[in-house]
Design goal:
Helices cover 30% and strands 29% of the residues. The chain has 504 residues and is of the alpha/beta class. Helix 9 crosses helix 12. The relative contact order is 0.12.
Length: 504
């Protein structure tokens, strides 16, 4: 009996002085406030714009209590294309991103529209981390100023972040020597690295197309996918992975709460999480006054320079996306005619995707500088090449190869006409090409006006890189300026759809 009492006393003493093992559940929430694909500052039809996004961000950040971390995420495509970026190459946009308090951003394809040097300038001007995990320079190093991964610590939890940029950037923008590594390989490498560093949750900020997004989601490499690029509103939750897409222009702001929990089970510490998502329609959101004032100051600055009349159109001009990317467009004819005449070329080809205002100008409309820079915001210049008829034919095949997807590569042409079959196999769609009323000679060399983006092989026009350079980008004139000079010289323009492009 005495031995039993003594043993009991010893056990009680042991437990009294032994360190206690925490068995209570621990919880925390990380909140992602998601926007992206918004190079324009102002709202449209009462929705979107930076002043409204700022308000939404403040509302949800103010709700942060206890173990809740709120982060404003930008999913890329900020620096371009816009009216203002055509003048300052995205510098004002970085000012706006800093002002609304972005916490993280992934680079989008349009961040390279003004070349890699400008990309780096804008990255360094940013007051927040920028991810571009699968992008390297010619020396194999990350883009200067970017980070490959980041780690957020919320209470007892670690949330690892990586950023993925679409590999199509090399075709649709101007990255020059910057290279885009395979997305899946990068995700696999960095997800493992983050987990080795103790990450409980893996989050990918992504500027990818729909197919690339699906590959990442189905791989199981990441828990949370926050994406942009396609301008969709998507939220998906299968209980294992979640996917939220930013849409465009801040029309609807995504909000994703990930509730994390750790607990003991069978003597081991476990981790689980669940998510809830919603979109905030900004139509009835009040603008943040400070950001609205900043937006107005930029608009006023633009107004002084751009609301200058340069001419009038007596015919309808349609720059809507589906028009300029699928068929001959009167405004496309106007732009490429100005380019061809401006460099005294025989033929002209420009990409419909470079025409951006998405509006209709009724007959009798006065055209301003603002109109032209809105239509042509990328800051491209007009170059002149020498190409054979065979090479021009190849370029046209590329131009109509993705018309089903409303691809920006669709050609608007001058000095020639062509017929094509939309139902034919890709690569064999061009039926005929005429130059000055006669079949284009495949062996003759023609002079061609185009923009510097296409001349460098952009939008799949790799054949242009084989051409003889007559006027290069360094000695070239701004595309928008050439079009403005053309309209101003004529005073009144009457460009129409005239059968330059015929679908058979």
């Amino acid at each position: 009996m005495q031995l039993r009492k003594l043993f009991s006393a010893l056990l009680m003493g042991f437990f009294a002085f032994a360190p206690m093992v925490a068995t209570a559940d621990e919880t925390a929430t990380i909140r992602f406030i998601l926007t992206g694909d918004m190079p324009e500052f102002t709202s449209e039809d009462g929705r979107g714009g930076y002043a409204k996004v700022a308000t939404v961000s403040k509302i949800f950040k103010k709700q942060t209590k206890g173990n809740i971390r709120s982060l404003l995420i930008h999913a890329g495509d900020a620096y371009s294309p816009s009216l203002l970026s055509g003048m300052d190459k995205g510098k004002s946009t970085v000012d706006m991103l800093n002002a609304i308090g972005v916490d993280y951003m992934v680079l989008g394809n349009h961040e390279w529209d003004f070349g890699p040097k400008v990309t780096r300038e804008r990255v360094w001007q940013s007051n927040f981390p920028i991810l571009a995990s699968n992008v390297i320079d010619s020396e194999g190093l990350p883009v200067d100023g970017t980070v490959r991964t980041a780690m957020e610590v919320i209470g007892p939890f670690r949330v690892g972040l990586l950023g993925l940029v679409t590999q199509n950037t090399k075709d649709v923008s101007s990255p020059e020597t910057d290279q885009f590594l395979p997305i899946m390989d990068t995700a696999k490498e960095l997800a493992k690295k983050l987990k080795d560093q103790g990450a409980n949750l893996i989050v990918a900020l992504a500027h990818l197309d729909f197919v690339e997004d699906m590959e990442i989601l189905q791989s199981g490499l990441v828990d949370v996918l926050l994406s942009g690029h396609d301008h969709y509103h998507i939220f998906f939750d299968n209980g294992k992975d979640v996917w939220l897409d930013a849409g465009e222009d801040g029309e609807k702001v995504g909000v994703l709460d990930v509730h994390m929990k750790s607990y003991m089970k069978r003597g081991k510490k476990r981790f689980s999480w669940e998510a809830d998502m919603r979109y905030v329609d900004t139509k009835n959101i009040k603008e943040d006054s400070a950001i609205a004032s900043k937006v107005k100051s930029y608009e006023d600055l633009l107004g002084k320079e751009l609301d200058v009349k340069i001419g009038k159109t007596v015919s309808e001009l349609d720059s809507r996306k589906k028009t300029v990317r699928t068929e001959e467009a009167a405004i496309g004819n106007l732009i490429i005619d100005a380019m061809r005449e401006g460099v005294n070329a025989e033929i002209g080809i420009t990409n419909g995707g470079g025409i951006r205002a998405k509006k209709i100008y009724a007959p009798g409309t006065t055209i301003t500088r603002r109109d032209i820079l809105t239509e042509l915001p990328f800051g491209n210049v007009v170059v002149k090449l020498g190409l054979t008829g065979s090479q021009i034919w190849e370029a046209l095949e590329n131009g109509v190869s993705q018309v089903e997807q409303n691809s920006g590569r669709f050609p608007q042409v001058s000095g020639m006409s062509f017929e094509w079959n939309p139902k034919a196999k890709v690569g064999s769609r061009i039926v005929s090409v005429e130059f000055r009323g006669r079949p284009l000679s495949k062996y003759k060399t023609y002079t061609l006006a185009t923009n510097d983006f296409l001349a460098k092989g952009g939008d799949g026009y790799s054949v242009f890189k084989k051409g003889k350079v007559i006027i290069d980008a360094y000695g070239a004139k701004l595309m928008a300026s050439m079009v403005m000079d053309y309209i101003k010289a004529k005073g009144t323009v009457s460009t129409k759809v005239e059968g330059r492009i015929v679908a058979k």
